[in-house]
Amino acid sequence: MTVPRGYIALVLHAHLPFVRHPEAPSYMEEEWFFEAITETYVPLLLAFERLARDGIDFRLTISFSSSLLSMMTDDLLKERYARKIDNLIELAEKEVDRTWRSDRACHELAKMYRHRFYEIRDCWRRYDGDLVRGYRALQEAGCLEIITCTATHPFFPMLDRNWAAFRAQIHTAASVYERLFGRRSQGMWLGECGYVPGVDELMREEGVRFFFVDTHGVLFADPRPLYGAHAPIYCRSGVAAFGRDIESSKQVWSAQEGYPGDPNYRDFYRDIGFDLPHDYLTPHIHPAGIRTFTGMKYHAVTHRASDNKRLYDPHQAYLRAAEHAGHFMFNRERQIDHLRSNMDRRPIVVAPYDAELFGHWWYEGPTFLELFFRKLQHDQGVVAPITPSGYLREYPTNQVATPSLSSWGEKGYGEYWCNGSNAWVYRHLHKMAERMVELAQRFPDAKGGVRRALDQAAREVMLAQASDWAFIMKAGTTVSYAAKQTHEHVMRFTRIYERLAGASAPNGVNGAAPSPGANGAATEAGIDPAWLDEVERRDNLFPEIDYRIYAT
Q1: CA-CA distance, 280 to 331, in Å (whole number)?
Q2: Mean model confidence pLDDT for the chain
């Protein structure tokens, strides 16, 4: 076996905000989750299973956020997705018939989608809707390294006033991961790679051995690292920080300069959900008649304009994916050869991407990954795939330095998550966190309804802290929904706080010492049981949450 000169660590970050609406029979924003299952999470799982079946060494790291894991394991959402994939198959059957009669040019594509949807449903049913079980099996087989992510994906640099809130996010994520995967997570993805010096101490408390930062988070570390972003550094806590490699990221990520913008690939925006007559689509779009993406797209990228695009050719797209996989491999070989000549160890190229790029935004992305790993094994001997844990086992001694505050967002710091469109949220987030600490200290051993209310208050704090809402406000997409979610979490928390803070003080005066019954049933009258039942039903993630984490 050829000894490699260096390594590549591909990292896929899988995250969606917690979107679950049991109060309505269907909800537009739940489509985000359903589309991700159909276009990313199942296609990736199928690709990984094929690689494992064929004995391909495809060491890869994937992070699942706790909010995404909560949705993946939620019975209501699993039931709704089962209906969704059945409906997509019905649409595909209709399209096969329609195109045979009146649009022969698209007929083979309609058949392709029909086959794909059946394949996805078969995989879904094989795991009884529990995709976590499928990914866990690949981890236990030694193929994947699955790591956790801060619980609701907050952007830490904008919350750097309350370290109890940091601890709650990290502790909850580690607990959710252990419950679902039967082990402690070796790594953690910080939301938006938002690193704050010192937060690694909290990760160390939970047994986390490594995390990721953007390139400049390592390059501007104190002291400056000898090997730049191509070897990890240890924080003073002993937790390792891996820096993102700029070159490999840009080649894949950029729609303008990278692979996904190739004119032969499938176009994301041209979808029959917007192209075909409304009456024909009515059974397959939102019940309110709102046109939506169906996932059936018949056109290639061709050019940036949305009109006059040529038909998609799956065979030609496959050939381009193979070419791009070879090109990506060749560039990593040259990169590793150059780096190795200046290092006393094998360099590591860390290439992290949002998982949803592969399949959802870039339809051929899972194929690209599969072909890349096959080529790595059969077509060269310079580069080998590795996980961060594997690299730390091979090189347990590394330079000690403190990464700089950073993110992987636009301009590298916090501007995208704090600007004129979204800065208003932070005064509420800071106040919620302060009040949550106050409640946890006032009620050190709550029971019954008070305990339920405090645990729910902790959920509302974490849900409000999700970076997704500020991101959406800046991006200008579903701004009203992001603002509504933020408002609702703030108001639910505030209602609990005002009831409990008032009940714990003599004569209802806030700020006084707890009354003798503050931890027992005497204060439950301040919380409407029916209201609490409904809030728990809606925001039901993290069933084992313990509000007392905020008291530390």
Answers
A1: 47
A2: 93
Q: pTM higher than 0.90 for the full model?
A: yes
Q: Are 365 and 259 in contact (CB under 8 A)?
A: no
Query: How many of the other CB atoms lie within 10 Å of CB of 487?
Result: 14
Peptide bond into 263 cis (omega under 30): no
Residue 518 has pLDDT above 50, yes or no: no
Contact 180, 132 (CB under 8 A): yes
Tell me the CA distances in angstroms from 488 to 320, 407, 473, 476, 499, one per residue in order: 46, 27, 16, 20, 17
**How far apart are the C-alpha atoms of 404 and 535, rounded to whole Å?**
39
Domain boundaries, the chain: 6-73+130-266+312-410, 420-551
Cβ(339)–Cβ(347) under 8 Å?
yes
Q: How many Cβ atoms are within 10 Å of 326's Cβ, its own excluded?
A: 15
Q: What is the pLDDT of residues 265-290, one digit of tens each?
A: 999 999 999 999 999 999 998 888 88
| For residue 507, pLDDT beyond 80 | no
> CB neighbours of 140 closer than 8 A, spacing ≥ 6?
none
Q: Tally the C-alpha atoms within 13 A of residue 227's C-alpha that lie toward its C-beta.
A: 26
Whole-number Å distance between alpha carbons of 250 and 413:
18
Q: Are 242 and 9 in contact (CB under 8 A)?
A: yes
**Would you say 243 and 229 are in contact if contact means Cβ atoms under 8 Å apart?**
yes
Q: Give the CATH H-level superfamily of domain 420-551.
A: Families 57/38 glycoside transferase, middle domain (1.20.1430.10)
Q: Which residue in 244, 130, 233, 139 sits closest to 189, CA to CA?
A: 244
Provide the pLDDT for residue 523. 46
Q: Give the pLDDT band of residue 17 (cuts 50, 70, 90).
A: very high
**Average of pLDDT values for 341-353?**
96
Q: Helices marked H in 206-313 — which ranges?
A: 215-219, 246-253, 272-275, 278-281
Q: How many residues make up the chain in this entry?
A: 552
CB neighbours of residue 342 within 10 Å:
11
**Dihedral sign computed on CA atoms, order 355, 360, 366, 368:** negative
228-250 pLDDT, tens digit per residue, is 999 999 999 999 999 999 999 88
What φ, ψ does residue 548 adopt, rounded to 5°? Answer: -70, -10
Tokens encoding 455: 């645990």
For residue 301, give Cα distances in angstroms to 114, 262, 268, 295.
21, 7, 8, 15
Q: Which of 68-82, 283-297, 388-402, 513-527 has the lowest mean pLDDT?
A: 513-527
| C-alpha to C-alpha distance for 380 and 4, rounded to whole angstroms | 9
Read off the tokens for 12: 């896929």
Q: Given a cut of 80, is residue 6 above it in pLDDT?
A: yes
Q: Domain 6-73+130-266+312-410 sits in which CATH superfamily?
A: Glycoside hydrolase 38, N terminal domain (3.20.110.10)
pLDDT in tens, 141-169: 999 999 999 999 999 999 987 999 999 99
Average pLDDT over residues 33-45: 98
Give how far the C-alpha of residue 492 lies from the chain's centroid of Cα atoms, to the nearest Å.
Answer: 25
Query: Residue 101: how many CB atoms within 10 A of its CB?
Result: 9
Least Cα distance to 440 among 348, 535, 334, 547 occurs for: 547
